[in-house]
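How a chain folds remains the central question behind the approach discussed here. This step matters because it turns folding into a mapping between discrete strings. The sequence in question and its structure tokens are set out directly beneath this paragraph.
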Amino acid sequence: MPTPSTPSAPSQPDRRPATRRSALKAGVGLALGAGLLGAAPAAAAARDNARPPVTGNKKNARLLQRGTPLCDQPGDSASSQGLGSGDLAIPYYREHDSSWGYVFGDAWTGIQQTDEYIGSPVMLNQANFDSSGATPISFTWAQPTGGRARQLFDYQHRQNNGYGDEISRIPNDCIEFGGRTYIQYTSVATWEPPAGYDGSLMSGVAYSDDYGVTWNDYPYHWPGDTQGTNQSMYGMWSFAGIDPDGWLYIFSKRWNGTHVNTGDGGAIQLFRIQPNDFRDGNFGAQQNWAYVNNSWQWTKSAAPSAILSGNRIGEFSVKRIGNTYCMSYFDVDDYSICTRTAPRPDAAWTAPTPQIVGNNTWPASHWGKPQTPYLYGGYIHPGSASATSLTLIVSQWNGKLNEPPYWVLQYDGINP
């Protein structure tokens, strides 16, 4: 385990596209100028890279998804549930009935940014997931059950809902255990924060006791930028799951859903809490993984230390797959979805491996990788086949008014 100040990923020159979220500043989206990506391929090539599955490993005749779009296709399973276009699609296991949920961020009824805006977050569900990769994800029903896709939380966009002005509430992760479903989210105050600020209002945890139909908010919120706590390390969470040791392990970092947070620094921290304390909203019962007196230890007397740092990180995901902890994230500076692994959440993590890249001609570490321009997200499916064959859900956005505003794409067989 490195000391808290040790960078774990060297920076690369910045070749990223402009933030997707700037298109939402008018509520339904604005077109961005041409040339967002410099030498990266155009939007048409991006769509071509996101077409139906191709043959995978011929040795075992597996058919893997390699950027299969899960929405934005007229007549697809998402549109049949009332969702034409959306991003994130964070997957989680619905343990009460062994089905699967997918939590979207901003969503529309159609595939144009001029179509009706549904809101954020939005949930679609799936009865059965094929971890082999032979069959792409297909959505079976939307929340509320038997209805059409709609915003899960009861709040108004671009209004003060009692905490200060907020634009949208963006989900970061979802988990179900003990008959309750939890979504951790960030309330966004601005998508265009000044340099050095993260642009968040607050972060919070909402819960549902009817498996996603109705939601309540825990009364405690972690203050964000516009509430006086800029760069809070509790801005974005990922639920790694309940370990066999009985603890719920949670990773968290600064809010960087904008992908432009200059203060992000790639820092990720780790804490754990007993599931019953979490359910009760007793968040003060958490134990922190901290570097104290020249050693790493679990403690309640010190704040969590950064376990990783380096390049800026956007969306991230940590899941226990088999006996291995797997991490994926959007490396903003490297312009790629990277993965790492560790035998335990509090053990040393492997070096980052780029898996899906925005430009596979540069740098050399990207050569031969699957290319998806305008990418972000990169969530690990908890039903992945194994720790050496992950399913990742990757988002894509090209920022153009007359194109689908968001895609979510399925990639299988990822070996971290």
Q: What stands out?
A: Confidence is low (pLDDT under 50) at residues 2-61.
